[in-house]
Amino acid sequence: MKSSHKAKHLISIDDLSSQEIQTVFGLAQKIKKSPQSYRNALQGRMFGLIFEKPSTRTWISFEVGIQSMGGGTIYLGPEDIHLGVREAVKDVARVLDRYLDGVILRTFAHETIITFEHYFHKPVINGLSDFEHPCQALADFLTIREKSSARHKPILAYIGDGNNVLNSLILLAAKLGSHVRYATPANFPPSEGVLKKVREYSRRTGAAIEAFTDPKKAVECADFVYTDIWVSMGEEAKGQSKMQSFKGFQVNRELLRGASKGVKIMHCLPAHRGEEITDEVLEGKQSIVFGQAENRLHVQKAILIHLCT
C-alpha cells in the first residue's frame, strides 16, 4: 500500500529508510533538549490539519509543534470538509496544494491519504489511518531508546489488537533491527502485507519479530510492555463481539509477573481503564505512558523539519 509519489512524505513507516529514521530520532532529541533553537524552523509556512476522527495528542502536538517553530495551522475537523462526500478527495487536494505548505491527515481509510498525496505535491503526513500510525510508532521507539541501557537490546512486548499501531511498530522494529514479541487473538493479527515486509527487512537487519496468541508467553522477560484499546474508532458497532476475543489480554499485575523486573509500561492513549489495562498498572511507578505521549511533540517537530526543509 506504499504510495508512488516522489515528494517527501510520511504515509507509512515504509516511506522512511533506516538512516532517515535515525536522523529523525537524533533531531527529535536535539529539539527536546533545546526547543528554542528551532523556533524559526518553519517560519512563514502554513499547514492544514484535516481530521476525520477526533484527536487529542495528534492534533495538539502537531499544532503546538508547528506554531512553536514559526509556522501557522488551520484545523479542518469532521464537520468542516467531509472528504469524499461533499467534494472528491482529489479535488480538495488540488485546491489545498495551492494554499498550504503541508498537510496532516487523520482518516478512517488509509486509501484516502494515498489518494490525497497523489494530488498534493507537498509533504503529507499520516496522523492516523486504519492501516498505520507512523508518528505514534516513531515516538514510541524514541521513548524506548531514552529508557534503555546502551549495553542491552530491549525486548518490547505488545499485547492486544493487530491494529494500525502494531502494523507501524513491527515495521519500524524490523527496519531498526529491534526485538518485538506481540500477542494478538488468532482472529485479530496484524496485516499480512505488513508481516511480509517485516520478514524481508528482518532478514537484512537481524530484527526478531515474534508472534504469539498467549500474552503470558509474549511478556516473558520483556523490558517494555505496550497495549492499546481493543475497539478502535469506527469499530463501535462490533465492539461487544470483538471484546470477547480479548479475554486474558488485559495488562495487569498478574500478567506482568513474567516480565523483566524493571519492566516499563506503554500505552498510546486514550486508555480504557479496566479493559485493556488496569488503572493500577497505568498509574504505577513503572508506567512511562505520559513521557511517551510527550515524545509525540518532539518527534513530530523532527518529522516536519525532515520533510519540509
Question: Could you characterize what this model shows?
Answer:
The protein is an alpha/beta fold. The chain folds into two domains: 13-133 and 296-308, Aspartate/ornithine carbamoyltransferase (Rossmann fold); 136-292, Aspartate/ornithine carbamoyltransferase (Rossmann fold, 3-Layer(aba) Sandwich). Helices cover 40% and strands 14% of the residues. The protein contains twelve helices and nine strands. The protein has helices at 18-33, 57-68, 89-96, 110-119, 134-147, 164-176, 192-205, 215-218, 239-243, 253-256, 279-282, 289-308, and strands at 46-51, 72-76, 102-106, 124-128, 155-159, 179-183, 208-212, 224-227, 264-267. The strands form two sheets. A five-stranded parallel β-sheet has the order 7-6-5-8-9. Strands 2-1-3-4 form a four-stranded parallel β-sheet, sandwiched between helices. Helix 6 links the parallel strand 5 (155-159) and strand 6 (179-183). Helix 1 (18-33) crosses helix 12 (289-308) and helix 2 (57-68) crosses helix 12. The protein is globular and about 55 Å long. The model is unreliable at 1-5 (pLDDT under 50).
Q: What is the topological layout?
A:
Layout: H1 18-33, E1 46-51, H2 57-68, E2 72-76, H3 89-96, E3 102-106, H4 110-119, E4 124-128, H5 134-147, E5 155-159, H6 164-176, E6 179-183, H7 192-205, E7 208-212, H8 215-218, E8 224-227, H9 239-243, H10 253-256, E9 264-267, H11 279-282, H12 289-308
Parallel strand pairs: 1-2, 1-3, 3-4, 5-6, 5-8, 6-7, 8-9
